[in-house]
Design brief:
176 residues; 7 helices; 59% helix
Length: 176
């Protein structure tokens, strides 16, 4: 039985899995978005979230702890200089998984995993929604608008006469 065995081994040995997740963490920090399978993305999320939380406090100790996991100086400096500044007020949930469908070769479910604060398209949509205030229209303005519209109305008698003339012309042709 497999009670309480929730760990996804991803079909790899322990050292291979740790190295792969470390490389994927560094790539995610450097590129802000990577394309991978859903299983790897879910495993990566469990690894990268604590690393980003450690980066909020910029001390030598936290840098050494993060470097143990990432093994990349450029990724550590990028994380502490740029990423941690942008996510400083966020309490958690630093990554987003967007499913994209299945891979053609083996039908594996694929996705994007990205850092939440770096997706410009989704940030623009949220700012547009927040910038537009909702207003209610009063009935007085609506009533005034209908009165003005009724005074400006022009008679539409010309169009039906033209239609009648066409019909009468066709009737004359049929009689002849």
């Amino acid at each position: 039985m497999r009670h309480n065995k929730k760990f996804n081994h991803l079909g790899r040995t322990n050292t291979h899995r740790n190295a792969m997740l470390s490389n994927m963490c560094a790539s995610l920090i450097m590129h802000k978005r990577i394309f991978t399978t859903v299983a790897k993305a879910k495993a990566l999320r469990k690894v990268i979230e604590p690393i980003i939380t450690k980066s909020k406090e910029d001390s030598t100790h936290s840098r050494r702890l993060v470097f143990q996991d990432l093994q990349s100086k450029t990724a550590v400096t990028e994380l502490f200089q740029n990423v941690s500044v942008k996510i400083a007020d966020r309490p958690g949930g630093y990554t987003r998984i967007i499913k994209t469908g299945n891979r053609l070769g083996d039908n594996a479910s694929m996705c994007f995993i990205e850092l939440v604060d770096y997706n410009d398209n989704m940030l623009k949509e949220t700012t547009k929604a927040a910038a537009k205030p909702k207003t209610r229209r009063s009935k007085k303005k609506a009533d005034e608008g209908t009165e003005v519209a009724s005074e400006v109305k022009e008679p539409k008698a010309k169009a039906p006469k033209a239609a009648k003339a066409k019909v009468e012309g066709e009737d004359k042709k049929t009689e002849e």
